[in-house]
Amino acid sequence: MGCVWAREARALRFVLRRAARALRSPRAVPVTTAVFVLVLCGFLLHLPDFHHDNSNLADDHRGVKLLVWTHPFGQNRKLPDCWARYRIEGCTLTDDPLEYPHADAVLVHHREIATGAAQLPPEPRPRAQKWIWMNYESPTHTLALWRLEGEFNLTLTYRRDADIFLPYGYLEPGLSRSPDAHLLRAGSRARLDRPQLVAWVISNWSDSQARVAFFYELQRYVRIDVYGRVGVPLAAGRGSVVRLLSRYQFYLALENSQHTDYITEKLWNAVLAGAVPVVLGASRRNYERFLPPKAFIHVNDFPSVRGLARYLLMLHRNPSKLWHHLDWREGYSIVQPSFWAHHYCTACREVRKRIGTKQVVQSLEQFWSDPGLSHSHSRDVPRFTPIKHF
Ligand SMILES: *[C@@H]1O[C@H](CO)[C@@H](O)[C@H](O)[C@H]1NC(C)=O
Ligand SMILES: *[C@@H]1O[C@H](CO)[C@@H](O)[C@H](O)[C@H]1NC(C)=O
Prior knowledge:
Layout: H1 2-24, H2 28-59, E1 64-68, H3 82-86, E2 91-94, E3 105-109, H4 110-115, E4 130-135, E5 154-157, E6 164-165, E7 170-173, E8 181-183, E9 196-202, H5 210-218, E10 224-228, H6 238-245, E11 248-254, H7 265-273, E12 276-280, H8 284-287, E13 297-298, H9 305-317, H10 319-323, E14 332-335, H11 341-353, H12 364-368, H13 372-375
Parallel strand pairs: 1-2, 1-3, 3-4, 4-5, 5-6, 9-10, 9-11, 11-12, 12-13
Antiparallel strand pairs: 7-14, 8-14
Helix pairs in contact: 6-7
This protein binds 2-acetamido-2-deoxy-beta-D-glucopyranose (2 copies).
């Protein structure tokens, strides 16, 4: 080691001596100027970073800190790095309640507050802090909203008219850059000949639900394979459902209740698996905001369940007609925002866009009371346009 140092010191002395001699020579001035310019250039090359940060501060595009108040349904998960995962910059996520005074926004998941498992954050709140109400249950399964009137600044949910709109799934044109996306393939006509006909996955069976009545009637006409808590048990993980569905021609994507924009992962799993979804939930017009009209079969397309059953059996016998429901797929990506990493990072990005603004959700109950459903037949609902980025 010492030997290496000695050699380097000798080399340095040599360079310095040469430099000193050069400085004394007539060419000294141009040489020093050149060296100076080179050093300056090197410095300037590194300057943009520094300069960039400064301008961001000036524009008030500073980073924000988002406090996740409760982990949804009490399931602790590691918080994502929004930059590494989604290329969303300027976000610091934390679930440490001690960070409350320093948080630009607090994300509150409805369920824990409604059941009393957690309390709202303490008042008085920091002056510029925003509280975000996050809920992915339908209005039928959302309790105790009246306690939350006038408390929140932003809503984050699957509804299109939310302040921060993030559905259970959506289609993007072309190849999506999202890590939660899959490119859809049209598949081949040959592969239409899937071994099984109709599948249904149900975890919460209740005879009072419209979907259960529908199931009882449909199974009088066609064979339905039932999976989930009351049927054949499922292997864990979303991937296993998609693998299962890819053996079927049809999948019953029946929502537990009927509400505007309430279209859950049931539909998107079927789309991903290339099984034609048979949907029961919001109106056909409402579904058509999210996917092409022929991408699904709506139970209301037929005057009777028997009519629907006949149609499914006809498609089963006529692959070219079944193809009509699948040939739209080429050229789309399907994004299924992963719970809850995608939601946290989206919330943070939206808070960052709104730094310095003020807003109050005056009545959550009114917002969530779902005026859309009764109107959606009469009102001119915009038709399907794939979602680019939001
Ligand atoms: C299951 O269904 C019943 C009846 O519709 C409902 O009251 C209950 O909240 C549901 N449970 C879940 C976890 O969705
Ligand atoms: C957020 O909502 C609260 C409660 O209504 C309100 O007092 C506060 O001014 C709002 N803050 C912002 C930043 O909008």
